[in-house]
Every structure is written in C-alpha cells, then in structure tokens.
Design goal:
Length: 143
C-alpha cells in the first residue's frame, strides 16, 4: 500500500463514527469527495475495500481518483446524512455523518453539524441527502 493510500485510509479511520451493527452483509459505509466536483458512496464488508469503492465512484464523477479523498467511514452503516457547506468566500463542499440508528437521528446530526453558531466563516449549511443502511440515496426536500 503506498503512502498516499495509507494516509487516506488512516484519515477515514480517524473520522469514524460508531454505529449500531446491522444484521446485513454490510459492515460499513464509506464516503469520498472531490471538492466542487462530486463524490461517491459505497457499502461494503471492510473499511479498506469500501473506501476504495467510494473513491472509484467519486472518480467516475470527478475524473481523477487523486482528487477523491475519503471523507467518512462508519462501521455498521446505519443511516447517514450529507450536508452542503458554503464558505463566505464562495468555496463549497460536502460533509457526511453516518452510523445513525434512524433517518431522524441522521437528520438531527446534520442539523447539529450545520449549527452556524459553531462554525466561523460559513455562509450556509444544510442537509441535502440521507442514505439508508443499504447506501441508497434519498434526496431531501427542504427538511
């Protein structure tokens, strides 16, 4: 494993949020993101292959796997939420929270993540998508 890939896996592991184990084949969910280009999400049996899958899906949208950084990995996928963040200078990106026991819990975590009283220089932040425990994307309509 090269140093860059090792650092990516380590970064994802550091971002890990605990979640309840699910009675499915999947042991986790991973998110990868290329700033201002797109992202990828995968559900899989282990961290390394699931993160690699998410980076590959991201690269299909972004054009380069080098641009696709692992953003989150959760053991026991649970429910997840993706939030869009807009910096006051116009730069925008996505952040993810995962491993929650319900859709409502994932949305509550996204709301906390987007509490602007704790985030300097952020113009806006909102949940745009949730993912069910199988990794299916559910677009939100102003929730």
């Amino acid at each position: 494993m090269n140093l860059r890939k090792c650092a990516a896996v380590l970064s994802a592991a550091c971002l890990m949020l605990g979640g309840a184990a699910l009675p499915s084949q999947a042991n986790g969910i991973a998110f990868a993101y290329a700033p201002e280009q797109g992202g990828g999400v995968c559900v899989g049996e282990d961290a390394a292959s699931t993160i690699d899958c998410a980076r590959q899906k991201c690269a299909e949208r972004a054009g380069s796997i080098e641009d696709c950084a692992p953003m989150a990995w959760c053991e026991g996928p649970g429910w997840s939420a993706g939030v869009g963040v807009m910096h006051k200078e116009g730069i925008h990106w996505s952040e993810f929270t995962c491993g929650w026991p319900s859709r409502e819990a994932a949305l509550a975590a996204a709301k906390v993540r987007c509490d602007l009283s704790f985030r300097e220089n952020i113009d806006s932040c909102s949940a745009g998508v949730v993912y069910d425990p199988e990794g299916n994307e559910i677009i939100l309509d102003d929730e």
